[in-house]
Amino acid sequence: MASRRLSHGNGSQLESNDATVTRLARQDRVPWSGNDERASVFRFICDGALLIRKSFDSSLLNGLQAVPSWLEYFHHPRSALLGVVSSMYSLGAIAAVPFVPSIVDNYGRRRSICIGSILMIIGGVLQGGALNLTMFIAARFILGLGIVFAIVAASSLIGELSHPKERAIMGSLFSSCYMIGSLTAAGVTLGTFAMASDWGWRIPSFLQVLPSLLQVSFISFLPESPRWLISKGRGDEAYAILVKYHAEGDENSDFAKAEYTQIEETLEEELKNAGMSWKQVLSTSGMQKRVIIASFLGLFTQWSGNGLIS
């Protein structure tokens, strides 16, 4: 792996790379729309990564429960059976969690997004073509499997590929796109609500495939994560991406050098801590409190508002 430590005239490092990246990012006055390369990666991030949060399965099921054709076709599922239908999406996501980190780290962000998108396409097709409730439930499980791969890989790619100056905006857009998916699901279900045939629920189910198809179509236009490339010993490729999309093509840019070195140092630090066991993580009261807060944050985020209603 080529080393590109940021140095100045006398060869000494005058400030930490974190501070350098922050300072130079603040000094950058080039708007994303004013740079062709940065604008192109912004557009493809929107199409290839942000669309993942437009997956609208959870909101879709809420709407389908009010569609007469869906209720009649599946014989008005109630009580525990309806709970299984609703929770199977989350159960699929939970089942995928143990495998996601290794796949995302070993195969890269783009391939992981493709894996998740393909699973969601399969799940959407099966759900739209479901012949019975068992097939419908299985489809929701597959959709849940796919969404975790796609979300973890996409959020990583957005954070690692976006220009530091625009990273917070892109991260916020990623979360906000969930609301777009929810509104789209509600609108589609409302539009097909009055259809007397099975297409009243099959059309919204099939439409779940559309965001994933767009992801598969556009993801090849996105560069891979520089962080992942550096971790795999492909430093030259990573540096070329940083130069092209963050430094306006200037191979001697201090900003690109500082970013590259910052990533290297972070990876080295993570490697040092890779052998830390859960016993060590929970060894002090302060760390125990942090683990509890981190664990319950996810629970309380979901166990509120529309989550309780649905």
Topology:
Blueprint: H1 17-27, H2 36-48, H3 57-64, H4 68-73, H5 79-96, H6 100-107, H7 109-128, H8 133-161, H9 167-192, H10 199-207, H11 209-218, H12 226-231, H13 235-246, H14 254-272, H15 278-281, H16 285-302, H17 306-309
Helix pairs in contact: 1-14, 3-9, 5-8, 6-7, 6-8, 7-8, 7-10, 7-11, 8-9, 9-10, 13-14
GO molecular function, one term: carbohydrate:proton symporter activity
Domain Major facilitator superfamily (MFS) profile: 43-310
Main location: membrane
Description:
It is a single chain. The chain has 310 residues and is an all-alpha fold. Helices cover 71% and strands 0% of the residues. It has 17 helices and no strands. The protein has helices spanning 17-27, 36-48, 57-64, 68-73, 79-96, 100-107, 109-128, 133-161, 167-192, 199-207, 209-218, 226-231, 235-246, 254-272, 278-281, 285-302, 306-309. Helix 5 (79-96) packs parallel to helix 8.
Helix coverage percent of residues?
over 70%
Average predicted confidence as pLDDT: 81
Question: Could you give a short account of the major beta sheet?
Answer: none
Spans with pLDDT under 50 lasting ≥5 residues? 6-14
Number of strands: 0
* Alpha-carbon Rg, integer: 22 Å
CA-to-CA gap between the ends? Answer: 50 Å
What shape does the CA trace take? globular
Instruction: Report the total helices.
Output: 17
Structural class: mainly alpha
Outline of the structure:
By secondary structure, the protein is an all-alpha fold. It contains 17 helices and no strands.
